[in-house]
Design goal:
This protein is mainly α. It has six helices and two strands; from the N terminus they run H-H-H-H-E-E-H-H. Strands 1-2 form a two-stranded antiparallel sheet. Helix 1 packs antiparallel against helix 4. The longest helix is centred in the C-terminal third of the chain and has 25 residues. It is globular, with a radius of gyration of 16 Å. The two termini are 21 Å apart. 27% of the residues are buried.
């Protein structure tokens, strides 16, 4: 399981980098414009992705190393694009480092956590939580991609197969 999730962590970093490159082509007004997505704008969607990764990796690691853990899923952690982009890159590096540091046996473990919106507590297998984290990233990156397209920016190719082909050639 370790190599599987290591691949997803690296894919996640690659896809986020490509998405941020495309988002950098927007004007500030376009970047912040509410286009009816779940988190409104590209700005809101990218902040949500960072917010949820911080929440999940605090649950997984027990460590809020990159700052306070948000208490709302729609938290705006960074108002400006450059700071958000830097924080995203740091979070992706932190995710990769954590997953690289786990033993194969650790992937068979579980985590216990409380939801952000309720006091309910859950026990969950680590591999199920990780599957959710990476699926969630893909879901909301798709929304951000659609928002970019609506603004007239050609969204990047974010397919996992594209990443795998580039990674096999040492290009990702």
């Amino acid at each position: 399981m370790k190599s599987y999730f290591q691949m997803f962590a690296r894919y996640n970093r690659w896809a986020n980098h490509a998405l941020y490159d495309a988002a950098a082509l927007l004007t500030d007004a376009q970047y912040r414009q509410d286009r009816g997505a779940f988190f409104g704008s590209v700005h809101g969607t990218l902040n949500h992705l960072l917010t949820t990764d911080r929440i999940w990796f605090q649950r997984i690691t027990g460590n809020a190393a990159t700052g306070p853990v948000p208490d709302r899923l729609d938290a705006i952690l960074f108002e400006d694009f450059a700071s958000l982009r830097a924080a995203r890159a740091a979070e992706d590096a932190r995710i990769i480092a954590h997953l690289d540091g786990l033993s194969e046996a650790a992937y068979a473990g579980s985590i216990r956590y409380r939801r952000v919106s309720t006091p309910d507590e859950f026990d969950q297998k680590l591999i199920e939580a990780l599957a959710h984290v990476f699926n969630h990233q893909t879901h909301h990156r798709g929304q951000a991609h659609a928002l970019l397209t609506a603004h007239g920016v050609d969204g990047p190719v974010l397919d996992l197969l594209q990443y795998q082909r580039l990674a096999d050639k040492g290009l990702a």
